[in-house]
Amino acid sequence: MYAFDYQRPASRDAAKTSGAGADTRFLAGGQSLIQAMRLRLSQSARLVDLGAVADLKTIKADGNGVTIGAMATHAAVAASADVKRIVPALAELAGGIGDPMVRNMGTIGGSIANADPAACYPAGLLALNATIHTDRRTIAADAFFTGLYETALQPGELITAVSFPAVQKAAYIKYKQPASRFALVGVCVAQTPGGVRVAVTGAKGSVFRAKAIEEALTKSFTADAAKAVKMPTDGINGDLHGSAEYRAAMISVMASRAVAAALAR
C-alpha cells in the first residue's frame, strides 16, 4: 500500500473541506477501495473517512418513498422497517449482498460510487427509478452509471443520499458467484408509476436496462412473458463462469423469476 494522508471528519461540512483536492477520495465502507490500495491497484494522496458523519447514515420515509443516507450499511437497509414497508425488494436485495461482515461494513453510497459491474445495488437503483443526491445536485439513476467502474460523479463530489419512490411491485433475483455472492447475472424488475423497468447487472461492463423485456412485460406482466424474450449477446460478458450466450439466456430466466417473486408479494 502506498502512503497516504487519512482524515476522519465528524460533519458533512468538514468532510467537504477535507475532501478538497484532485487526489482525494472519500472512504465509505472500504470493502473495495482498501483492498485495491493494499494491492497497489489504486492510489490516493488523501482518504477522507465518512464513518463519523452521523447524518449520512439516516433512513427516512415520507409520502413519496424512502431516502437512504449514503453511509447506511447494507445491513441497515435490509433491517429497516421503512424500507421493508415501502420498497421490500430493496431490503431483500441488500440482505443478499456478500456475507454478514460485508453487509455490516459496506454502504449504499460506497457501492454505487464504485459502480462494480457485478454489484447488486446498481440494478436496484436503475429498476426502482432512484435519485442520487450529492452535495451539488441530484442525478437520476438512468444518468448515473456511465461505464465500467464509471459514474456521472465529478471530482470531489460527495454522494449524500439515495431516494427511492414507492413502486407497485418489484423483486430482484441474481444468479450469484458462490464465493463472492456478486451477480453473474442479476435482474431487478419493477412496476413503477412510469411503467415497467428492468435492470441487469453482472452481464455487461455496466448495469443496463433490458428494453426488450420491459416491452414484453408492459404487454403482459408475467413470468412467461419475460422468459420468452431472447436477449442479444451484443456486449455481453463471456468468461470462465459462462459464455456470452449463456449469460444472455440467464437474463431472461432471472427476469422471469423476478416477476414471479414480485407477483407473489
Walk me through the structure.
It contains 12 helices and 14 strands. It has 265 residues and is an alpha+beta fold. The strands form 4 sheets. Strands 4-5-10-6-7 form a 5-stranded antiparallel β-sheet. The longest helix has 20 residues. The mean pLDDT is 93.
Mean pLDDT: 93
Question: So what's the overall shape?
Answer: globular
Instruction: Output the strand order for the largest sheet.
Output: 4-5-10-6-7
Can you tell me the residue ranges where pLDDT is under 50 for at least 5 consecutive residues? none
The H-and-E topology, N to C, reads as: EHEHEEEHHHHHHEEHEEEEEEEHHH
Q: Strand percentage, roughly?
A: 15-25%
CATH structural architecture of the domain at 169-263: 2-Layer Sandwich
State the distance separating the first and last CA atoms: 47 Å
How do you describe this structure in short?
With 265 residues, this protein is of the alpha+beta class. Helices cover 34% and strands 25% of the residues.
Record the SSE blueprint:
Elements: E1 5-7, H1 12-18, E2 24-27, H2 33-38, E3 46-49, E4 59-62, E5 65-69, H3 74-79, H4 81-86, H5 88-95, H6 100-105, H7 108-114, H8 121-127, E6 131-134, E7 138-140, H9 141-144, E8 145-147, E9 150-151, E10 159-165, E11 169-176, E12 183-192, E13 195-201, E14 208-209, H10 211-219, H11 223-227, H12 244-263
List keywords for this structure.
5-stranded antiparallel sheet, 14 strands, 34% helix, alpha+beta, 4-stranded antiparallel sheet, globular, Enolase-like, domain 1, Uridine Diphospho-n-acetylenolpyruvylglucosamine Reductase, domain 2, 265 residues
